[in-house]
Amino acid sequence: MPSEKDFNNHVRSGISLAPMTTFGIGGSAGYFAELDSKEILEGLFKWSRKENVPVFAIGGGSNIVVADEGIEALVLKLSSNGSFGKIDFTVEDDKHIAVVGPAVPSAVLLRRTAEAGFSGLEFFAGIPGTVGGAVACDAGGRFGRISSALVGYEGFPYAFGKQDKGAYWLDKTRDAEDFLITEVVLKIEPAETAVVNTRIQEILDYRRKTQPEGVKSAGCIFQNPPDGPSAGELIDKAGLKGKRRGGAEVSTVHANYIINSSGATAFDVIGLALDIIEVVQEKTGVKLALKVDIWGESLEELISRRGYF
Length: 309
Ligand SMILES: Cc1cc2nc3c(=O)[nH]c(=O)nc-3n(C[C@H](O)[C@H](O)[C@H](O)COP(=O)(O)OP(=O)(O)OC[C@H]3O[C@@H](n4cnc5c(N)ncnc54)[C@H](O)[C@@H]3O)c2cc1C
Fold this sequence. Notes:
This protein is an alpha+beta fold. The chain folds into 3 domains: 4-78, Uridine Diphospho-n-acetylenolpyruvylglucosamine Reductase, domain 2 (2-Layer Sandwich); 82-207, Uridine Diphospho-n-acetylenolpyruvylglucosamine Reductase, domain 3, CATH 3.30.465; 231-305, Uridine Diphospho-n-acetylenolpyruvylglucosamine Reductase, domain 1, CATH 3.90.78. The protein has helices at residues 4-10, 38-51, 106-115, 131-137, 146-149, 193-210, 231-237, 266-284, 297-305, and strands at 11-16, 28-35, 55-58, 64-66, 71-78, 87-92, 95-100, 118-119, 140-141, 144-145, 150-157, 168-171, 179-187, 189-190, 244-245, 248-250, 258-260, 293-295. Strand 6 (87-92) and strand 7 form a beta hairpin.
């Protein structure tokens, strides 16, 4: 258990999560702590078990929609100061690896990897957020995914029980959703910095041409179906570009983006996403699935009331 001083130093109540998300939407966390040590993390897990308060992790907030009324949970943000922000390039069993703290922004890891003369993480180009969030969401797309570079990771089980002593080392087959990630190991390959930078630039150019810039969003809101046209193509074909609900709007640049164009609520965003699912299913027979994570009971209720989940 954390000492009372540690607890009071780290845990705050009623902190708004909206500024910590790229949508800029959402209410407050019942409890919120930013921390830079595994000892304090372990203490907070023990506290949450004793008090029966669920634990959530937030990274860059670029793949979540937080309910307007907030969440009754302990939301933990790992600070990039200390070990949660480290980047080490090393060799293990004759293979080059990067040992990375979960709080490192993916863009920073990509730049440092290229500068150090390694390739293998170029798929990160243009993806916001942190390395911990990227593992939890298996970030990537047409240029590759983090799961192909992942060797393994270390994490605290969210269901932290009396028998648990601290973090576990886990191979890549374990479900990252069950753990709060505290360290990540990624495969990398020696490469010329100039070659890696050219590839990064190509990916960024592609993204600039096809995706909206400077807007509040969580990137693509739906997963692409396993085969056939992409979610964006289906939404476009259904004539939904520019469709609005409150302050939320389907991007006219990329139909798989919902943007917070003018003071949208979480209800606007998820309501619009559900409208899209219904129309696309009606017109094409394909049922789209949300890609973003949903935080909060009211949103879960809204989704199940409209027949999803
Ligand atoms: C403009 C834009 C473009 C995007 N493009 C892409 C893209 O091309 N491909 C893609 O996959 N995604 C994309 N995204 C979505 C998002 O950026 C990625 O999924 C990103 O990797 C999420 O990281 P994050 O740190 O922001 O996670 P958050 O949004 O903070 O969290 C997402 C999930 O990860 C969990 N999480 C966060 N940190 C940890 C941790 N340390 N341990 C355990 N769980 C954790 C959270 O609990 C939550 O469930 C885009 C988003 C935007 C805004």
